[in-house]
Amino acid sequence: MSTPFTMEWLIITEGREKRVNEGENLFEIAYEGYKLFPINEPLEIRKYLSSNGIGFCVIEELILKDHSTHCKYRLISLNSVN
Predict the structure, then answer these.
(1) Is the separation of the CB atoms in 29 and 12 below 8 Å?
(2) Burial level of 45, CB count in 10 A (0-12/13-18/19+)?
(3) Is 9 helix (H, G, I), strand (E, B) or coil?
(4) How many angstroms separate the CA atoms of 47 and 41, rounded?
(5) Which sign, positive or negative, has the C-alpha torsion 82, 15, 8, 40?
(6) Closest to 61 measured CA to CA, from 21, 15, 30
(7) What global pTM score does this model have?
(8) How far is it, in rounded angstroms, from Cα 43 to Cα 76?
C-alpha cells in the first residue's frame, strides 16, 4: 500500500505557526499528512494560499511521523512588519 504525500513550494501557516525561542526567527508548524519541502532553499511564506506573501524562510528540520509533517523553519526576510 502506498503512502500519499505532496511536494510543497510554499509555507502556508493559516496562523498555526509557533515561535521556537523568543528572540530568534525560528518557527515550527505541523501539517496533517505527509508534505515534502525543499531543505535549505528559500521558500515563500503565506498566511493563506490566496494571500500575499509574508516573507521568505529556509526549512531547517522536517519530520514525517504518524501521518503528519513537523517543520522547523527560519525566517530570513519579512515583507512587512504588520
Answers:
(1) no
(2) buried
(3) coil
(4) 19
(5) positive
(6) 30
(7) 0.88
(8) 10
Query: Distance (Å, rounded) from C-alpha 37 to C-alpha 26?
Result: 16
Name the pairing type of β-strands 18-19 and 5-7: unpaired
Q: Under 8 Å CB-to-CB from 76, ≥6 apart: which residues? A: 25, 42, 55, 56, 57, 58
Highest mean pLDDT among 3-7, 23-27, 70-74, 78-82: 70-74
DSSP assignments along 22-79, one per residue? TTS-EEEEEEESEEE--SSSEEEEESSTTSPEEEEEEEEEEEEETTEEEEEEEEEEES
Give residue for cell 508548524. 29
pLDDT (0 to 100) of residue 69: 97
Instruction: Specify which residues 46 forms β-bridges with.
Output: 12, 53
